[in-house]
Amino acid sequence: MGRATDQLNRPLGVLRLSLTARCNLACPYCLPDGVEPPGLLTLAQRLQLIEAAVALGARSLRLTGGEPLLHSGLEELIAAVQPLRAIHPEGPGLREIALTSNGTLLSAERARSLRGAGLDRITLSLDGTTGASVARMAGVSDGEALLAKVLAAIEHARAAGFDPGRGELKLNAVIQRGANDDQLLPLAELARERGLELRLIEFMDVGNRNGWRPEAVLSAAEMVERIGARWPLEPQGRAGHGTASRWRYRDREPEGGGILAVVASVSAPFCGDCNRLRVTADGIAYTCLFAAPGSGLDLRPWLQPDSAAGKLQGALAELWRERRNRWSEERQEAWQIGTAAGATTAPPHAEMAYLGG
Ligand code: SAM
Ligand code: SF4
């Protein structure tokens, strides 16, 4: 069947697979409802799905949630997909398996078992460097305890062999104007001290519960300007189909925490080369992060024990071929012509903790 390409000539490259919609935190910008959808996919169904996506061109598997470390079958899944790294009959196989986590459950033992199972990369989320900011951004009462856990998780991951110098361990931070933008420099400093790439994410209008308004978005350009005023930065551009624009600290080697990345999905959308397919924990496929709830394709009819592999592949290929989403760019265009329609009359979006970011 070969590599799938959509209506805007974008190839399928990344499968973001959510393993659970549940989370043990309540970040106000995400606000999971804590409800697991019925009909979670089994390990066998997830494998079928990943195999079909790889056959259609996906080279990267990103495991997410909710909080993916709440999923007890995580290591088993990672181990089970290893054979897909081999050359696939229809092209090269899977090149990387990555995980995005809030880090709270990443003990030394769990980090070792994930590495041992064959996980290549971990990105941990941390939105502040003080107990108060962490508590506010994660929706918890004891921010000091959470901060200590995430800082320990970074070291557990490093000790287990995830090398930040090779991009195997990174830090994500969502920055919201008026909520944690005072944490920009402290977060950059924390990442520099620990030799980690920090990825600063603009507050996005995903879901319908996070009270998003344009005024609460701190643009990536402003983040770079503020950090660059303290530590001069040089642009490195945005790699391939990547979401992040990268900047190099002039006083550092790139390998030693010398990279700052910003994800400008609101202020400078990159729909033009978005290559991500998202599948929820219950097997609903979405071709855009900003898709409307209920608009995804339920893959379960093709994920039955007696379903032929080709049928699932065919359904996914058709979904991808029909894809024409460029929601974030359309929002931007609406703003530019002054209607702000993208912000005020946009249809509802599926929730982030369900879609998996
Ligand atoms: N629970 C894990 C975590 O927080 O890393 C994985 C799932 S979370 C939905 C994936 C990523 O989405 C996290 O880095 C999180 O900070 C980010 N995220 C969630 N809601 C967001 C929003 N409204 N705007 C920007 N990023 C958001
Ligand atoms: Fe949980 Fe991640 Fe959402 Fe925070 S961003 S509530 S950690 S799923």
Helices and strands, with pairings:
Layout: E1 14-18, H1 43-55, E2 60-64, H2 74-80, E3 96-101, H3 108-117, E4 121-125, H4 131-138, H5 143-159, E5 169-175, H6 184-193, E6 197-202, H7 220-230, E7 233-238, E8 245-249, E9 259-263, E10 276-279, E11 284-286, E12 297-298, H8 309-322, H9 327-336, H10 341-344, H11 352-355
Parallel strand pairs: 1-2, 1-10, 2-3, 3-4, 4-5, 5-6, 6-9
Antiparallel strand pairs: 7-8, 8-9, 10-11, 11-12
Bound molecules: S-adenosylmethionine and iron/sulfur cluster.
S-adenosylmethionine (SAM) binds at residues 23, 29-30, 64-65, 67, 100-102, 125, 172, 174, 201, 203-204, 206, 210, 352-353, 356-357.
Overview of this protein structure:
With 357 residues, this protein is an alpha/beta fold. The chain has a single domain (14-355), classed as Aldolase class I (TIM Barrel, Alpha-Beta Barrel). Helices cover 30% and strands 17% of the residues. It has eleven helices and twelve strands. The chain has helices at 43-55, 74-80, 108-117, 131-138, 143-159, 184-193, 220-230, 309-322, 327-336, 341-344, 352-355; strands spanning 14-18, 60-64, 96-101, 121-125, 169-175, 197-202, 233-238, 245-249, 259-263, 276-279, 284-286, 297-298. Helix 3 crosses helix 5 and helix 4 packs across helix 5 (143-159). The longest helix is centred in the middle third of the chain and has 17 residues, at 143-159. It is globular. The chain starts with 13 loop residues before the first strand and ends with a helix. The model has no long low-confidence stretch (mean pLDDT 91). The protein binds S-adenosylmethionine (SAM) and iron/sulfur cluster. S-adenosylmethionine is lined by residues 23, 29-30, 64-65, 67, 100-102, 125, 172, 174, 201, 203-204, 206, 210, 352-353, 356-357.
